[in-house]
Give the backbone structure.
Amino acid sequence: MKTKKFWNWKKVKNQETGAEERILELSGTIAEDSWFDDDVTPQLFKDELNAGSGDITVWINSPGGDCVAAAQIYNMLSNYKGKVTVKIDGIAASAASVIAMAGDTVLVSPVSMLMIHNPATMAWGDHAEMQKAMDMLSEVKESIINAYVLKTGLSRPKLSHLMDAETWMDANKAVELGFADDIMARAKTGPGEDGEGDTDGEEKKSPSAHSSMLFSRRAADNALLNKVIAKYGEKKPKPGIGEQAKIPASGEKTAPETETGRSVDALMERLNLLKR
């Protein structure tokens, strides 16, 4: 069976030092075929990782994938002897966010997104098998939280809540919560470098000075539901065609109807006055 690689190695020359730098690109789904019972693919990744030396830069643009593969890659990068710099240039969601936590330094693009949520699986069987699947997912979640705690320093209950809500973070929020260390700056060339040649006179703000965005799918769903209930929940449907209006029982008091016009006698009196 041919291995489907979601990673790619490159060597680029540093323009300042002239030394070669190792680049690891992780893109697309993390392991379309699970590494759970795969011994070949993880070993291939490890061999390629250790084939060179020195610092490496890991570029991530992935919607996530297999949590087993993500865990193994996280461990391999964490145990790598050189410095590991992670750069998120698109999206690091689900399992890909776990891999990102292995970086000694994690940088995010100003337009990148990071998402964390609860692990999911598919199960079949009776209630006992369903319970086993639930217990397994709980343990997988705890293992993922371990990686988040080490990087962010946030409490386990806080991280668990963020995962329950399926939380999306922009670059500023990722830095604010500790999932990233800084925001990548665009390479500057020409007279605008180091602030020279700026004519707009605007003060440059640090990433922390900008507003951040955190999106929770569950919070958004609940907010929408509350608005729908507030707007339509109190209204009672009027009797339609074929429906019978409620007839009060004998002795039951009914609220007086609000008058919306003039009586017939009042109109006739007004008409007679006009004829005079």
Q: What stands out?
A: Helices lie at 40-49, 67-78, 95-100, 127-152, 156-164, 171-177, 217-232, 264-275. The domain at 7-186+211-219 is CATH 3.90.226.10 (2-enoyl-CoA Hydratase; Chain A, domain 1).
